[in-house]
Specification:
The protein is mostly helical and 309 residues long. The protein has 2 domains: 169 residues, no CATH class; 108 residues, no CATH class. Helix 7 packs across helix 11, helix 13 packs parallel to helix 15 and helix 15 crosses helix 16. The longest helix is centred in the N-terminal third of the chain and has 18 residues. The protein is globular and about 50 Å long. The model has no long low-confidence stretch (mean pLDDT 96).
Length: 309
């Protein structure tokens, strides 16, 4: 798609304007999705950020585990009681992600460093507590789902351990008359799919696709019904997951029309402005990176690449 390529070129040309975390996010997603040489170059240049070679790995992981939620998440007022109920979740899921990045991008096995800080027993007890707490799963959404998928699929290398039927049933617990709960449901299902793909780096096994396609069917109906109330990031997360699952949705054309009408007057990137839940505070070049990398990914078929550099 011509617009997607122009946006990609604009981000590559202006990548030095992105902060280090945004740049790593952009590079790691594009490398996995497209096998793009410029993306691999970004990952190579992000080595010091992720590996921190001048520090002991145990110290790096320990510092991450201790991090606490700062109130910047979506629907924070709904999530706050559950962050308080599970105070180790935020730092633990960040640490799991760091271990994942170290392995899948830089070929470093940091699991021992992780377990020196937080034991597998502690990690599994937290996971089971979340899986037994439907309300926490529902409201924490992305945080809980990412934690479970990275722990099981990446750390434990367990391919058949998560209760997918339970995850599918979670949609019945959301009040879809409330836009924030619709948003949490979209994030819940899309991150089940993204987690199963190990963040765009592998195909989902054929036998698992039917249940993930059922999730997409539910989201497709929900987005169609509430289209003008759903922000562009959520819509593009859906399209990316449809690509991953080879799910042919009628929403592709409708969402792309909104994207084409949402190009920023300040540069070649998409901003969120044409829906009732637009993220107006995330409409500059840097804060729009997440939305734009999703758009770029959503416009081509899914053929995952190794991100190991």
């Amino acid at each position: 798609m011509e617009l997607a390529e122009k946006i990609y070129e604009y981000y590559i040309k202006n990548k030095d304007l992105l902060d280090s975390d945004k740049l790593f996010h952009f590079g790691s997603r594009i490398a996995a999705w497209r096998g793009d040489l410029a993306a691999y170059d970004i990952l190579h240049n992000s080595y010091d950020l992720i590996v921190q070679p001048n520090r002991q790995l145990d110290d790096v992981i320990s510092e991450i585990v201790k991090k606490v939620q700062t109130g910047k998440s979506n629907a924070y007022e709904l999530r706050k009681p559950f962050f308080e109920k599970y105070p180790k979740l935020y730092g633990a899921q960040l640490a799991l992600f760091r271990v994942r990045h170290l392995e899948t991008i830089y070929g470093i096995d940091a699991r021992n460093a992780l377990f020196n800080t937080i034991s597998m027993d502690e990690l599994e007890k937290l996971e089971q507590a979340l899986l037994n707490d439907d309300e926490a799963l529902k409201i924490l959404s992305t945080y809980a789902i990412n934690y479970c998928y990275v722990l099981e699929r990446v750390i434990k290398k367990n391919e058949h351990s998560l209760p997918l039927e339970k995850f599918l049933e979670i949609s019945k617990k959301y009040d879809t008359n409330q836009i924030k709960q619709i948003q949490l449901l979209i994030y819940f299902y899309t991150h089940c799919i993204i987690g199963e793909s190990n963040f765009y780096s592998r195909n989902i096994k054929i036998e698992k696709l039917p249940i993930y396609r059922q999730m997409l069917e539910i989201l497709e109906k929900l987005i169609t019904k509430h289209f003008d109330k759903i922000n562009l990031d959520n819509k593009l997360e859906f399209l990316v997951c449809a690509r991953i699952c080879r799910y042919d949705s009628k929403l592709f054309g409708r969402i792309y029309k909104e994207c084409e009408k949402s190009v920023s007057p300040d540069g070649t990137f998409i901003i969120d402005r044409l829906n009732q839940n637009a993220q107006n505070e995330r409409n500059n070049f840097v804060s729009s990176e997440h939305r734009n990398v999703l758009f770029i990914m959503s416009t081509t078929e899914y053929f995952p690449h190794s991100t190991l550099i």
